[in-house]
Amino acid sequence: MPLIRPFAGLRPTAGRAAEVAAPPYDVLNSEEARRMAEGKPWSFLHISKPEIDLPADTDPYAPAVYAKAVENLAQMAAAGVLARDTAPCFYAYRLIMGGHSQTGLVAAANVADYDTNRIRKHEFTRPDKEDDRVRQIEALNAQTGPVLLAYPDAPDVDALLAAATAREPDADVTRPDGIRHSIWVMADVATNARLSALFDALPALYIADGHHRSAAASRVAAARRAQGCDAQDASQYFLSVIFPHHQMQIMDYNRVVTDLNGLGADQFLARVADAFVVEAADAPVKPAQPRQFGVYMAGRWYKLAIRPERIPATDPVARLDVSLLSDNLLGPILGIADLRRDKRIDFVGGIRGLPELERRVNSGEMAVAFSLHPTRMEDLMAVADANQVMPPKSTWFEPKLADGLVSHILD
Fold it and tell me: Which of 5, 27, 17 is nearest to 404 (CA)?
């Protein structure tokens, strides 16, 4: 079976995309989604976060929530806000944020290739989050949140996407955050066959974001195979948007810690100097290259550079900047061994900027902040190729995909 294939997408009808497009379900809490969707009856948040249409104290995992999503989807289709294409298509998808642009392909990706690790993972998943996505897919009989994938160098794929996007887009939305989302329907059978063949020739695809969505799709696919579905069934594929890895933008994912583990500032810096070269800085430190870090505490910035002998020679996980910081500072000096569960540490996406680190420390909420260089796509791919797992909060991808522009119906 092909690695990817076209499908008949469920999309906003002409002129309705701006009313429908919404942030991904997992970047907003229920109250934020409720405020964002207020006065917007066709926002896709009514499908991806349907608890916003139920009493405020509703458990977001209650059966009534998934039932409300089904009701809302049916209403949007009945009102002509959403309609399904009549033939299988690929869709080109361009994201523009400021001066950054990336163009990828909306496709149905093969669950079997996910299961055999040709579509490669780099994160653990949580069962409760998987369960939520399974229930949502089964209730809607659709996948509405795309998995963000990356493909390795493939100039012929890049060229076909460039050709497909040379005309005016079929949907073009600039969200309130300033990010522009453009969709082109790719209905030409010969072009799509060529694209499928080019992807089949690739050694692997890489999950950038959406591990819970892909894991849930795998579970749904297995359940439906047990009920008699064959490999051609729509349930054996999952909704994805696949970008060239060299166009994807990973931002820094910074750390803030509540205390210095009983150390004074001078003691802390002296301990840090065992593994890092420490320099005082007269401006906020945004590391310009890997292996450099910034530290902010007590109103001052410092620049750290990991000592070369502390960098493991080959381990793709241990060589990551997030690992070097954890293994040489957060763990041995600050006593933070479990990034997932330790309540003393928090994480700040680079989209918020260095002033947010200063604010968290200056407020007294945190004692120290660490700025990092962004993880590189090549490093993520090396970890996935080694069948290993990235540390928590290693990557922050921007811009984010929108929900609602193309959905995958499982029939």
Answer: 17
Return the pLDDT at 340: 87
Q: What percentage of the chain has pLDDT greater than the value 70? A: 100
pLDDT at residue 242 above 90?
yes
**51 Cβ neighbours under 8 A, 6+ residues apart:** 30, 58, 59, 60, 62, 65, 68
**Is 90 exceeded by the pLDDT of residue 88?**
yes
Torsion angle, alpha carbons of 85, 88, 89, 95, to 10? 70
Cβ atoms within 10 Å, residue 119: 26
Q: Is 17 helix (H, G, I), strand (E, B) or coil?
A: helix
CA 5 to chain centroid, in Å, comes to: 22
Report the 10 Å Cβ neighbour count for 65: 22
- Read off the pLDDT of residues 181-222 as tens digits, 9 standing for 90 and up: 999 999 999 999 999 999 999 999 999 999 999 999 999 999
Token couple for 71 = 């009701």
Q: What's phi and psi for 303, nearest 5 deg?
A: -105, 130
CA angle 404, 112, 44 (to 5 degrees): 10
pLDDT of 336 above 90: yes
Written out in words, the top-level CATH class of the domain with range 253-373 is: alpha beta
Q: End-to-end distance of the chain based on CA atoms, in angstroms?
A: 17
Residue type for position 5: R
Structure tokens given for 27:
């970047």
**Phi and psi angles of residue 357, each rounded to the nearest 5 degrees, phi first:** -65, -45
Q: How far is CA 128 from the centre of its chain?
A: 18
Band the pLDDT of 286: cuts 50, 70, 90.
very high
Q: In angstroms, how far is CA 33 from the centroid of its own chain?
A: 18
Cβ neighbours, 10 Å, residue 231: 12
Query: What's the longest Cα–Cα distance across the chain?
Result: 68
CB 383 within 8 A of CB 394: no
Residue 325: DSSP 8-state: H
| 89 secondary structure, DSSP code | B
Q: What is the pLDDT of residues 212-224, one digit of tens each?
A: 999 999 999 999 9
So what's the pLDDT on residue 296? 98
Using alpha carbons, list the distances in angstroms from residue 180 to 9, 97, 183.
20, 7, 10
Coil vs helix vs strand at 310: helix
Mean pLDDT of the chain: 97
What residue spans in the chain does CATH classification 3.30.1760 cover? Answer: 253-373
